Automatic annotation (TrEMBL), chain A:
Gene3D superfamilies registered for this protein in UniProt: HUPs (3.40.50.620), TPP-binding domain (3.40.50.1220)
Keyword Electron transport part of the UniProt annotation: yes
Full protein name: Electron transfer flavoprotein alpha subunit apoprotein
Pfam families reported for this sequence: ETF (PF01012), ETF_alpha (PF00766)
Keyword set, alphabetical order: Electron transport, Transport
From TrEMBL, chain B:
Coiled-coil stretches noted in the UniProt entry, renumbered to this chain: none
Molecular function terms, GO-annotated: electron transfer activity
A Pfam family annotated for this UniProt entry: ETF
Keyword S-adenosyl-L-methionine: no
Family the entry assigns: Belongs to the ETF beta-subunit/FixA family.
InterPro entries xrefs: ETF_a/b_N, ETF_b, Rossmann-like_a/b/a_fold
SUPFAM superfamilies: Adenine nucleotide alpha hydrolases-like
Lineage of origin: Bacteria, Pseudomonadati, Pseudomonadota, Gammaproteobacteria, Oceanospirillales
Protein name from the UniProt record: Electron transfer flavoprotein beta subunit
Every Electron transfer flavoprotein alpha/beta-subunit N-terminal domain range: 11-186
UniProtKB keywords: Electron transport, Transport
Amino acid sequence: MSDIIRRDPRAEWIMRNRLHPLHDQYMSQEEGGEVRGPSGLIRKFPHKVGFIGPNGIKRIDRLKGNSSAPKGKRSAAAQEVQLPLHKVENPDYYIMVVPDMVGGRLTGHDKDILGLAHKLIAEQGGNGAVVAVCFGEVKEEHFDTAGVDRVLHIEGEVFEGYAPEARVQALAKVEAQYTVKHWLFPDSIHGGCDLASRLAARLGERPATQAWQVNAEQTVSRGASASLDITRKTPKILMLLEECADAIDETRHEATPMTLDEVSVSAATIKDKGLMAVDPNAIPMAEAEFILSAGNGIHNWDQFHEAAKVLGATEGASRVAVDDGFMPRSRQVGATGTWVTARVYVAVGISGAIQHMQGIGQVDKVVAINTDAGCDMVKRAALSVIGDSEEILAELMKLAAEHKQTSLSDQAEENSNAA
Amino acid sequence: MPHKVISLISVGRHPQSGRSRRADQDSRAVELGLKLAGTDLDVVHAGNSEEPVLRQYAGMGLPKVTVLEQTESADALPALSSYLKAQQADIVLTGVRAESGESSGMMPYLLSEQLGWPIVARVADIVEIKDGEAQVLLALPRGQRRQVTVKLPFIASVDNAAQAARQSAFGPGLRAKMATQSGSTEDDSVRVNWSEAPAKARPKRLKVVKAKTAADRFKAATAKPQGGSGKVMKNETAQEKAQAIFDLLIEEKVIR
């Protein structure tokens, strides 16, 4: 084909003549493609740009269909983007990730490690699959978008609760049954570090602990209470710090279940006797899970302490309550006091000064009890209750007492059934 | 019959000044050992017997410290495991992680594998020992405790949640005896190939906006943090309000 652009005088003539029988056909042909002028420049036909909107006004979409806003008011529900599916068939090797699964769900730390596993596969090449090895109850529903190619859920009563010995036997079995290139564990206090150390001792491998920069050849890990960077060849078993890699966010994965042959677990030498009841006020406030915090709106302090006791909450206070002498300084939450990480924070009579809001920045769920519906704490809270705190705390204590009674009687019933 | 308790100690490192000191977790292990066995506690260090830090441990009220004499590059595992086997220990206490060297925290696990004893990790307290079984409290995140029972003999790594170590007295520390034995001579052959450097600060993770168009980038840059206020209850009765809060507490499992 020559590069010379040739005009078609007949076509131009037909397009100029709206009465020509072939006019419509030529015009529709023209619409999609670009029109070139006699000199080869692309010409725009201004009357053809844009479209007529629903109210009869001409609209021009200059984003070329890239706008994220939904098109037209009718389809207001945002369409979920379907990420491309990453498929692994007949993998040559596996990278086993043993996530913490705190509360049955993947933590941010776990997701980073899954991302790292994919990075390792990309660097090493070959057909590798990332496996999440889970024990006990699993509530996670988004294994696919977290980057899990295969899920190996090891079920059984012996693996429930605190059972590191049974679990490490199962992991050793996994090692024997599959070709495992790496074992990745979170270096965390949720049990990942313990399990990894047990497995490393069992397999006779030398692990890298507190690793934070990992590629296929080299691993940089912390040593000597985080004052040393140790560089070494990437070992088989790795315990990884938080933010060691980026989590998967651009692909979807299969998350197909895998099976493990029957594991014969020897009798446990460590017997789990369950969680202990801990005095909530003995827990350091920075790591308490459930905090009941009091501010200027509290008048009946005896009732507040009673409520904290009945609910089993750690006590906190705003600066005003501390300055007025109702609570000790060590209980102050906020910029000058403690920065808390609770999952649930109940703020009673706290309007929410900015210093206090900084202190509760990491809290998941805030519940506000306040008389002022317009205060900042109500804006931050997941659930706000407007009313007198004394009345509401009294009702809350009543409910908690009832709940305790019913759960006790349930237990007694269970015991009598068992007997 | 009193039980034979052995605490393993190492040289610590002060987090700010970097000077050597009593390691935090190891000194807690000595404290726990003193609680269980009194002055019959055997405290063992594998390394240099001239190390002044050992006197700081001895100052906690120990008449003697056993030192398995070996060089810094030698592997402590064979010396310790043969010593523990010979002593017929019932309980071996260590820290979770050493403050010097590789500080991988593998030592108690490797000992447990070699000796065939169970290991309990992150112990907060050993409550009582009865009929060849110990009742142990484990430290969990968020200040929670778990109770387990373990058959003797066992190895326990002591968490920061255990009772803090008592003050060290200088004079008794100086007067304590250093009982020296020969340790292992095998060098740690794997570690020779590693390169070590002072720790670099880890880069903070940046929030990367993956927007395809200018409009999206603009939106990401100017958008206020999500989460307009949640449910607000105004006109319900106090009982309904309390019920709503209580349901949330149950749902979040903070009330059991």
